[in-house]
Each structure stands twice: as structure tokens, then as C-alpha cells.
Task: inverse folding
């Protein structure tokens, strides 16, 4: 019997989320080991743009579950649509990222499919006896538990985002795209979304921030710190800093990044005037790290994906103006 | 009518103490013969949420805990903080329950007693599966609101309105009719501390003990190994052919961050305008603008 991996894809206006790309890569590796197939399942009101993106990945098929009630990110609607969809499909591993949606959806879907669930996995791979091996951390990350499951029935698993990493697809299989309209009625949905409040980068916790602009000892005074805050405003980023920035009084302790502060994992980390000592960098795991520093020997350049040797007082205001001209964004004016 | 709240609290093995893997089935246990159990931060937040509702809406709060004798101490702490009663669900055979079995036992008790609202933490400190509340909601057939950081009840409509934590700092305000299951995120509610006096007062309080005989759910999912945590290598683009064997190894060991000091294409030195253009182009290329 062929093995199937069903990946529930998540995306937004900006496209497919990175965590979904990780899940697709993990499912592909597993399916290759078990001579199986990978299908992506897109859920939403209109998933056309997302399907085009997923098409470039290494998947065998794409299912688009589309319904106006699936526009809001309420788990109930997704649950009803997905459970009725999977009831008609060949059993296999249902994989979803352990996002706020995935953490809700995975256990509930498992109950409806009358099967087991393993959450927050960090590794899913084929076992030596053609079983599925799922590894998840436990006890505050001190231990890891390895589960084994025969690839015959349904199994639901969620994958911890940011652990697996994204590898470029090795090949494109020109997957078939099938659009389905699930039977979904308003009365089936007990939980109603009243409003969706996008995160205010200035107020959200650093641990949640997708973009961070941070300053350090290289920022000489409070007036100069304004350049960091302006930059954060135009990039819709959170403001953080090194211990030096906290000691100089630019940021409260809650905004300090590093080994003794907050460990952050943003997509973009713009470090201005930060030398990049180990204590600071121990708390930074950024996908894109742009460093601006006047000292070309600063150790932060070793970790930077783009390093700029220059004066932050001259570069940041000009950059902010240029971005503002492009996006017309002046968050301060709008507040 | 008085609102009845069931508060599910787990006696979690404190991960700060020395732990070891032993037994069959494989379990993480404390090395010390007298292990320390604690209330997880998410459960502490759930206690605070329940007590907030109790004060604002004159609700009654029943704390439920499933497991061995360690639960009695946890329940006493709940009573000392302000819960009205403690219910200890225990079995004479084994007191280690899978999340499925735990949810089934608690669901049976909740269905029997007719509660209006079930509160629990998003995940425990030990296993941190985070599946108890979703499975419980499915077994009860009640709606689920997860990762809640604020909650309020509309008495007229008998509706619960909550603010949920979602990704990247966003929040979602949702509403649903009671009865419902709510999992509380520790971000929203700071724990309430117990006064020594109150703890002494409740030391001899009676805790209702209910014997259960759960039939373990048959499962093909087997735990085959519990081991100390190991990092898994991240997937990444293969190191370039221009690197030496040592640099390739270093790049892989550092999860893709080469220690090669100053790669020319990564470091830019030039005029201010050229530097601004370089960052601007990079941000556009990577989809940040």
C-alpha cells in the first residue's frame, strides 16, 4: 500500500509561510524513504496564488479547499473542512506546522480521524522497519522522545517551526491541482471571529517579532537612538538592543537581546552599532542579519548575511527616507 | 444562575530537578526518590483566570487533578489560592496517563457534573504535548478557545469573548456560547501567590477523591526511545565549492553560519548612498519591502 503524506499548508497575503515549506521538505524526505507521495492541502477563500507557489515545490498533488467561510483563521471552519476532506482520501500522515492554527487543529483532527497525534516534532523520518519515526522534545527540552508508527493508517503530526530549515526543492513534479468546495455552514461554527488585531511591533514581545531593529554601544546619545526607532517604524519592526543599549538607558530590560536578555528568532535582524560579542549573539538566531558598523573588524560581520561598513548616523536616516518614499509609510503620522 | 468552572491542573514533574529515563513504558522520572511536582506556568495562569471570573461573576471554581498522591498537594495549593473545591481523580492501578486517557477520564467527570466552562493551561511543563484541551473539547463536543490571554462573559447572551494570541504579535478576538473549553496562555495572566496563612488554613481541607478505572486506548503509536536531547542538523543550501573542507565542515556544524571572517560579497564598503542602495536592494530581494 502506498504511503501518503498530506501537508496542510498555511499562508497569507505575503505567500506561503516558511514553516509550511519546512513541512513540505520534511514530508518529501519521509515519502522518498517510504516510496510514497506528498500532497499539499491549501485551505482558504481563494488559494490560487498560494497554489502557484506550492507548485514549485517537490509535491505530487495540490488540493485547494475553498469556501468563503474559510477566509477567517478560525480553527472550527478548517476542522470541519479538513475532516470531511480526509474522510474521502487514502490514509497517511497528516502534517501541519505547530503554529497557533496547527496546535489547535492537529489534536482535534486526530480525534475526528480516530487516530493518534504527535505534536511539536523536530524530526520525522523513515525507520529501519519501514515505520515512521517521530521525534519530539520533552521536559523543557532536556529529553527527546522517539515514537514509532506503522505507515498504514492515519496519523496526525505537527512540526515545530524553524527547526528543520528550508532546502530548495530538488525537482518540480508539475503536480495536478484539484479544487474542492467543502460543505460548510455557518451553524457548524460555534466560535466566531470578532476582530483580528495585527501585532503592533512597538508593543509585541521581542520573542514574537518577525523583524527587529537593534542598536548597541555604537549609538552615542538618545537623539541618535531616534534613527534606530525611525528605522524600526518604516520597517514595521520591533526595537531591541544589546546590554550596552540598556545600560545607556535607551531600552528597558525587557527589550534587551542576548544571553542574559531575550533570545530572539526574527526573520530580519538589523543590528546598528552592535559589535556582536558572543553574549549578544547567543540570543540571536535570525534568518537575515544586516549589520551596520563603522568598525570593519567587528565580529558581528561573521554572522551577518549583509554587512555594511559605515556610519549608522548617515546610513539609517537616508535608508529610512528611501523606504518611506517607496512605501509611503509613516507610522508615527498615522498613530 | 451561578457559573460553574472546572479548572484542570496537572501535577507536573519539575524539570529543574535531576531527571532520568527509567521504567517500562519508558518514562522520564526524578532521580530523587521524593520527586518535586509543580504547577506549570500555563496552569498557574489558568488558576488566575478562573479566580478572576470567580470574583467578577461570582462563579464557583472546582480544581480537578488526575494522577497519584502528588495531585493532593497541587490541589491544596489551588484551594489556598482561592478555588472552592478540589477533586482528585486517581486510579488504583497506574497513575501515568497518556493525554488521550487523561482527556477521556476528565471528560467523563466533567460531563457528569455539568460545568459551564473548562479552563486549563495551554501546555504542561513536563511533556508539553499541548493536546489535552483540544482533545477534551472534541470528546465533550464543546467549542475550543486556545491560547487565551483575556476573557469576559456576557451574562445576557451567555457568550464568552476572549482575546487569543496568534503569530507574530497578532491577536484575535473571538466569541462563542457556553459551555466551552478554554486553554489559557501564560502571557495573559500573571500567577497569584499563596499567603502562608492561607496555605496553613487549607492544609487539612478535604479533597474529594474519585477512583477511576480507565481502559487504556489501544494504540499503534509506540515510544521506542527516550534520550537526552540532541540537536538535529538544519537543512540548508550545500556549501559552495570554493570553500575548503574545514570551512565546509565549520559551516555545517554552525548550522549554515560559516566562520569564514569576511566574505567579500557579504561585506560592503563604500559611499553612504551606495551603502543605502545595497541595504535597500537586499530588503527588496528578500521580500521585506
Result:
Amino acid at each position: 500500500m502506498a504511503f501518503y503524506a498530506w501537508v496542510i499548508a498555511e499562508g497569507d497575503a505575503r505567500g506561503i509561510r516558511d514553516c509550511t515549506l519546512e513541512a513540505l521538505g520534511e514530508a518529501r524526505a519521509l515519502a522518498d524513504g517510504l516510496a510514497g507521495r506528498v500532497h499539499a492541502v491549501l485551505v482558504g477563500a481563494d488559494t490560487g496564488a498560494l497554489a502557484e507557489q506550492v507548485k514549485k515545490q517537490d509535491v505530487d498533488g495540490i488540493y485547494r479547499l475553498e469556501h468563503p467561510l474559510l477566509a477567517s483563521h478560525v480553527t472550527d471552519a478548517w476542522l470541519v473542512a479538513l475532516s470531511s476532506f480526509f474522510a474521502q482520501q487514502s490514509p497517511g500522515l497528516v502534517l501541519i506546522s505547530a503554529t497557533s492554527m496547527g496546535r489547535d487543529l492537529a489534536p482535534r483532527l486526530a480525534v475526528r480521524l480516530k487516530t493518534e497525534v504527535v505534536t511539536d516534532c523536530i524530526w520525522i523520518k523513515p525507520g529501519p522497519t519501514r515505520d515512521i519515526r517521530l521525534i519530539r522534545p520533552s521536559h523543557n527540552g532536556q529529553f527527546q522522545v522517539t515514537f514509532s508508527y506503522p505507515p498504514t493508517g492515519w496519523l496526525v503530526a505537527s512540526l515545530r517551526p524553524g527547526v528543520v530549515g528550508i532546502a530548495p526543492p530538488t525537482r518540480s513534479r508539475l503536480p495536478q491541482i484539484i479544487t474542492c468546495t467543502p460543505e460548510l455552514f455557518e451553524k457548524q461554527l460555534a466560535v466566531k471571529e470578532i476582530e483580528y488585531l495585527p501585532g503592533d511591533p512597538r508593543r509585541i514581545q521581542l520573542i514574537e517579532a518577525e523583524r527587529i531593529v537593534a542598536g548597541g554601544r555604537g549609538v552615542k546619545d538618545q537623539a541618535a537612538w531616534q534613527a534606530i526607532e525611525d528605522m524600526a517604524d518604516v520597517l514595521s519592526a520591533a526595537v531591541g538592543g544589546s546590554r550596552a543599549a540598556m545600560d545607556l538607558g535607551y531600552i528597558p530590560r525587557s527589550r534587551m537581546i542576548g544571553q542574559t536578555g531575550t533570545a530572539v528568532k526574527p526573520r530580519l535582524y538589523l543590528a546598528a552599532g552592535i559589535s556582536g560579542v558572543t553574549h549578544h549573539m547567543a540570543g540571536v538566531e535570525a534568518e537575515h542579519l544586516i549589520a551596520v558598523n563603522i568598525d570593519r573588524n567587528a565580529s558581528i560581520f561573521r554572522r551577518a548575511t549583509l554587512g555594511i561598513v559605515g556610519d549608522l548616523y548617515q546610513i539609517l536616516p537616508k535608508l529610512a527616507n528611501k523606504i518611506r518614499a517607496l512605501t509611503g509609510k509613516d507610522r508615527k503620522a498615522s498613530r | 444562575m451561578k457559573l460553574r468552572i472546572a479548572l484542570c491542573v496537572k501535577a507536573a514533574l519539575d524539570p529543574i530537578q535531576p531527571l532520568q529515563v527509567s521504567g517500562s513504558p519508558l518514562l522520564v522520572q526524578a532521580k530523587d526518590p521524593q520527586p518535586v511536582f509543580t504547577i506549570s506556568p500555563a496552569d498557574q495562569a489558568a488558576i488566575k483566570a478562573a479566580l478572576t471570573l470567580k470574583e467578577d461573576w461570582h462563579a464557583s471554581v472546582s480544581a480537578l487533578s488526575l494522577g497519584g498522591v502528588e495531585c493532593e498537594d497541587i490541589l491544596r495549593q489551588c484551594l489556598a489560592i482561592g478555588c472552592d473545591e478540589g477533586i482528585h481523580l486517581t486510579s488504583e492501578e497506574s497513575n501515568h496517563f497518556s493525554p488521550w486517557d487523561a482527556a477521556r477520564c476528565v471528560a467523563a467527570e466533567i460531563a457528569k457534573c455539568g460545568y459551564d466552562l473548562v479552563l486549563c493551561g495551554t501546555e504542561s511543563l513536563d511533556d508539553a504535548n499541548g493536546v489535552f484541551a483540544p482533545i477534551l473539547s472534541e470528546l465533550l463536543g464543546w467549542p475550543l478557545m486556545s491560547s487565551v490571554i483575556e476573557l469576559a462573559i456576557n451574562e445576557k447572551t451567555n457568550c464568552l469573548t476572549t482575546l487569543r494570541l496568534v503569530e507574530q504579535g497578532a491577536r484575535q478576538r473571538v466569541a462563542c456560547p457556553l459551555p466551552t473549553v478554554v486553554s489559557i496562555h501564560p502571557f495573559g495572566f500573571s500567577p497569584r501567590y499563596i499567603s502562608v496563612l492561607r496555605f496553613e488554613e487549607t492544609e487539612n481541607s478535604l479533597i474529594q477523591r474519585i477512583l477511576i478505572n480507565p481502559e487504556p486506548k489501544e494504540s499503534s503509536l509506540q515510544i521506542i526511545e527516550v534520550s537526552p536531547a540532541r540537536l538535529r542538523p538544519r537543512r540548508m543550501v550545500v556549501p559552495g565549492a570554493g570553500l575548503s573542507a574545514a570551512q565546509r565542515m565549520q559551516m555545517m556544524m554552525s548550522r549554515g553560519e560559516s566562520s569564514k571572517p569576511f566574505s567579500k560579497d557579504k561585506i560592503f564598503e563604500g559611499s553612504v548612498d551606495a551603502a543605502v542602495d545595497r541595504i535597500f536592494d537586499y530588503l527588496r530581494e528578500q521580500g521585506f519591502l
Chain B is about 30% helix and 25% strand. Confidence is low (pLDDT under 50) at residues 255-261 of chain B.
